[in-house]
Amino acid sequence: MRVLIAGAGIGGLTAALSLHAAGIEAEVLDAASEIRPLGVGINLLPHAVGELIALGLGDELAAIGVATAENVYCDHTGHDLFAEPRGLAGGYRWPQYSVHRGRLQLMLLAAARERGIPVRTGIRVDGFDQDADSVRAAGTEADILVGADGLHSAIRARLHPGEGPLHWSGVRMWRGTSETGPFRTGRTMIIARGPGDAELIAYPIGPATINWVALLPVAPPGPLPGDADWNAPGSAEDLLPHFGWDLGWLDVPRLITSSERVFTYPMVDRDPLPHWGHGRVTLLGDAAHPMYPVGANGASQAIVDARALALNAGNLAAYEKTRLPETADVIRANREMQRTGHARDAAELAHITGTYRRKTRAG
Ligand SMILES: Cc1cc2nc3c(=O)[nH]c(=O)nc-3n(C[C@H](O)[C@H](O)[C@H](O)COP(=O)(O)OP(=O)(O)OC[C@H]3O[C@@H](n4cnc5c(N)ncnc54)[C@H](O)[C@@H]3O)c2cc1C
Fold first, then answer.
1. What pLDDT, in 10s, does the model give residues 156-167?
2. 18 partner at 20 to 30 Å CA-CA among 114, 172, 237, 275?
3. With contact defined as beta carbons under 8 Å apart, do 49 and 152 qualify?
4. Ligand 1 atom closest to residue 35's alpha carbon, by position in its atom list
5. 240 within a domain of the structure (yes/no)
6. Domain with 118 in it: what CATH number?
């Protein structure tokens, strides 16, 4: 069997590695002229880390990631509201890692190339033709085509025309990294809430590198006007009036202004689809189930998809039957978390985070 994967993001590369480990030939095509380490920090939850360890990438991952020890919810003065241990410290079987997205992508790319998996760049997959014998896309023929082409998936648009604009929570996010050194345990993720539902998430992705995301509600929820681009430049000036917070152990204005680059991105998702693909074509990762990042689940769910695909490559219906309902639950749980997560009470936060873990079956 030969599998063609459109998209060399976290999902597409992990799928290629998982298929290869299962003895299935895979080839990856990416529209970008070269794979560059784009993005800022992302989180890999224990269940996804377990899949990467099973692929023999545990040491590489440990070398580029920071093993998260705790999530701490606090207010904008640095007063703790609720804390939960994470990863190994939380009793999970595998660590949780915070990592630079681009470094993770390059690590997966290097592993794919070492294992002889062809990854070709500068090739956009815009559509496909399929019949009983094969599927053809971008001049290549295969038994299966996997659309792992991200939020603006061309394969999804082809499979599900007329879906309309992305769904926007009304929250805008600003993201950056700063070399401001460790805070608290050096392995702590903080979720700080201030007036006007302003929220700051910060966590280390290296010994001195802190990743931060500042969130502000700026519009009522609804269809997204305009575009969602992970690389759109943002301005620290827009944020500082809302985030002049001194948490005691973290100077938030310094964190924000120390970033060389600030990116802005609307918090968007899509409703779960009734089905992903048909015939020899399916979807994976953000192409299949774009979700709010509130549960830190986007990359993790793409990695879990990859494993399920490798187990069911000969039966795409079985792959979708497993993964579609699970990821639909995560989309819904993320929306609920986004709506309710502004609680300031420890018992309520414990309930909300516990419910989230249960609904997403996530570590
Ligand atoms: C540039 C970029 C920066 C990001 N930064 C962050 C971040 O800082 N924090 C965060 O939480 N998440 C970020 N994300 C999203 C995050 O990577 C995903 O939510 C998650 O990892 C799931 O990945 P995925 O492989 O499904 O999709 P993606 O990571 O989006 O990968 C999709 C890949 O498909 C390629 N592609 C797109 N269209 C086509 C096409 N028609 N044909 C062939 N290839 C195509 C893209 O070049 C990309 O490499 C970013 C995504 C991108 C693309």
1. 999 999 999 999
2. 275
3. no
4. 49
5. no
6. 3.50.50.60
